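anyone else get weird line breaks when pasting these?? whatever heres mine. first is seq + tokens for prot A
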Amino acid sequence: MAAILLALVFHRFGRGGNFHGEPFQYTAIRQILANRAFWIMVVLFSLGISSTLGIFTMLPLYLVTDHGMDRNWANTLIAISRVAGIAMALAGGWATDRFGPKRILRIIFVLTGLLTVFISLAPPRWVAAAVFLQPIMAVCFFPAGLAALSMVSSAGERNLTVSLTIPMAFLLGGGAVPALIGIIGEIQSFGWGIALVGGLIMTGSIFANFIRLQDQTRG
């Protein structure tokens, strides 16, 4: 119901472009795939999804296996930790409008990566705080990421750019990354896997420097 209500509110008050998107054709797709900024956005969204869905998927197993936490309490802790993300997503949108997507992306990737590493290194008495803090910062990626994604191609190509970027990023961030954490967990520990992903997330601040945004006035 909330999604339907928001759609109606946007239909009534939202501001959208008065143009048609590109059809799903070979020439249009080839042009997008030839754009270096598109591939950078695939990497950034893969890292952003890794910091949210990728970590979220393996976090219960890490808390139970590496910290001996009760399974029900681990699931409850993780669920509660996601509530504050709603307000932080709005704050991330405001910051993106204020400072520009590139600057916000650089900050978010560094802080999210550090907090992800903190989850893996935190002693038992601090692990609950780490579980709360990491998603609060991680969710801020999406307002800035979507704003940047809308600027890497022309207005007519945005529909195809989004349609190609998100599925690729989900395969990597939501599929390959949890599998990687699981493999490292079998070999060493899940904490090592989460720490490695945290380090990868921090590299997003480097990739963000190389995005060329169209109609960019800030960041």
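and prot B, same format (seq, then tokens)
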Amino acid sequence: MPPQRRPPPPVEQGASSSRLPSLATFLGVAWLPAGFLAVVFGLLAALLLLPRPWNWAVVALNLASVLLPLRIPPPRWAVRFLRFSIAESRRYYPITLVYEDKDAFSQEGPHMIAYEPHSVLPFGGCAFCEHAEGMPRCLTNTYVASTSTVFICPWMRHLAYWLGCRPASREVLRRSLAAGKSIFVCPGGVQECFYMELDEDKEVVFLKKRTGFVRLAIEAGAPIVPVFAFGQTPHFRFWRPFIDWPAFLFSRTAMSSFVRRIGYVPMLVWGWLGTALPHAVPMHVVIGRPIQVPREANPSPETVQRYLQQYIAAIEGLFERYKAAAGHPAATLTVC
């Protein structure tokens, strides 16, 4: 008889509080989106409401933050805050980590942590950041591939850099892997925001044309770690103009082309009571077995495609095996 697949390990529910979120929770969990909004609207308010020269002084102060080099050591308060932020995020939702095989992560060296879905923001990625605790070292000695928008936002850019965020450019990620750092990446990227469903039980991942992360992994000989996060998409409600409503003004093909051209999906998002704080929906982040890849300086398209298909199959397998245990038995996954 063929060997039977072992059932997935049980998903243990984390502890979550039903109390109203405190100010500390708001700052710890929502600092990135809230900080970005505060900077944008703060600058607008300064320009419109403050008299000269005070309004220009505010602009100059923000410009100085943008010009300040990123590669400066984080102050102790920043390290303490980032550690608190990660711990508070894991408690708030809460985030439960499930390994298919934790012993498989005893291997040293860089890994390509390929996390799905992106959702509005991939909050489950906080468990893989440099300041996270309780994870195998190869999964937290990590840089997070991020949109370049993060690094032009005054004040927020340094906190994001100290958290481990790096521009999601091929050269930056290649150098990081060569230096022995693992890379956390959402292969579908913000393009998945275009395909997201309003139905919380319909997950969509954009993977069929995403070969770049596989190529980088093969060039570095870095195992690809499939990761799927259940419960992340409902963290925010959202409305995408001309995609959700009014959708009849432009075809979906035209909007898809527009989104690719500008590099992001215009959308209005809101969380708890309309704020930047995500809804406290429990997350279950399932970490699959690493996919071993050969090390090749110039992998052929056929080789890249073969390992991309292995990754897609691994994501689909994680989804089907764990969705019931994670509390989403009726959920479906569409791979675009």
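btw re prot B: The longest strand covers residues 224-230. The chain is about 35% helix and 15% strand.
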